[in-house]
Amino acid sequence: MRVAFVHDWLVTWRGGEKVLEALLELYPNAPIYTLFYDEAEMPESIRRRTIIVDPWLNALKRFRKILLPLLPAAVEAMPLEDYDLVISTSSCVAKGVLVGAEARHLSYIHSPMRYIWDQRRYYLTPHRSLSLIEMIKHILLSKLRVWDVASNHRVDRFVANSSFVRTRVKRYYGRDAQVVHPPVAIERFKPQNPKKGGYFLAAGAFVNYKRFDLAIAACERLGKKLIIAGSGPEEKQLRRLAGKMTEFRLKPSAEEWVRLFQDADALIFPGVEDFGITAIEALAAGTPVIALKAGGALDFVQEGKTGLFFQEASADSLAKTLQNFSDQAFNRDYLTTFAATFSRDSFQRKMRQEIDATLKDRA
After folding, report:
1. Distance in angstroms (rounded) separating the CA atoms of residues 135 and 327
2. What is the value of pTM for the model shown?
3. How does pLDDT run across 221-251, given as a tens digit for each residue?
């Protein structure tokens, strides 16, 4: 059986790429088709694979956001007709590939495109200040929505990374999806120090929809130490909001990343996210999670057992929950046992079942 993988782009090493890495182990000889590729950003597990990318398009990888309206045509041009099984991992256009008439296509979907559906507000100027440029953007995104809905019928089986994404797949595509949570390297995050470090942690990419601004505002107001770990385009804006209680750790090493999770009193998870690998890493390190009661957090925050919810996306609501928080209320053994259900082995076992079901549907 000829198998191929399709991934939107391989230019950063984040959660979506870690999912792909785990899937690749199921088919060690299968090539990866992608729109953009930056070898320097990839680990050896990806570099040693056969990567198929158009060199002319790849030369423009710095401008991939601007090229978004052209990406449907680019992904449709991938020569996949000779494969029996195509597995796409998609948060943009990968699920829209064209496969052969007898082939099966399973799409592991991290999210329908956020910037054209329910999270447009984080990428576009509000309607009340619509300029000519913004109007053109809205027109282009409207056309992308039409393509996004039409192309979902090319997928034989959807697998979503959370219940939240499953709901969005149903809403925007009218399709059912099975839920298989992403794999987490839980063995790296074993609890170490019985005494915590006296700080809250917010970790991940510095992008606006993660709402690290809420964590800063709430901790500054309460006089509680906050460490923000990661990197991204919103760094300057976050630094402007930060006061004496906020500390930044930019691009921490793998070892420092683990220590930050182990020593934190709790991870603050303030945005509406599709899932949240960082939150499972925190639980694996014996650290509870304080999350907005929305999105992917509903799949892993058990009130009073693995963490606490705050009800509204506001600094006031988060601050109220932080005031009532005590890390002594959480059982570390329960946190780590729960995190173990998101292991790599569990993910691969469930995905083999989904692949078998996809192939069986063809019979």
Report:
1. 48
2. 0.89
3. 999 999 999 999 999 999 999 999 999 999 9
How many whole angstroms separate alpha carbon 214 and alpha carbon 194? 28
314 close to 285: Cβ distance less than 8 angstroms: no
CB 319 within 8 A of CB 214: no
Pure H helices in the chain: 15-24, 44-47, 55-58, 71-76, 132-151, 163-173, 212-222, 235-241, 254-263, 277-284, 315-323, 332-339, 344-362
Extents of the domains making up the chain = 3-183+344-362, 186-341
Token pair for 112: 């329908």
Are the CB atoms for 108 and 159 separated by under 8 Å? yes
Tell me what pLDDT residue 127 has.
52
CATH superfamily of 186-341: Glycogen Phosphorylase B; (3.40.50.2000)
What are 33-68's pLDDT values in tens digits? 999 999 999 999 999 999 999 999 999 999 988 898
- Which tens digits make up the pLDDT trace of 161-213? 999 999 999 999 999 999 999 999 999 998 876 678 899 999 999 998 899 99
Write the CA distances from 143 to 127, 139, 140, 148, 149, integer angstroms. Answer: 18, 6, 5, 9, 10
Convert 292-324 to b/e letters by CB count within 10 Å (16 or more is b).
Answer: bbebbbebbbbeeebbbbbeeebbebbbbbbee
Q: Which has the closest alpha carbon to 149: 78, 96, 217?
A: 96
Choice between 347 and 113, residue whose per-residue pLDDT is larger:
347
CATH 3.40.50.2000 fits 3-183+344-362, yes or no: yes
Q: How far apart are CA 222 and CA 198, in angstroms?
A: 14
Neighbours of 43 (CB within 10 A): 11
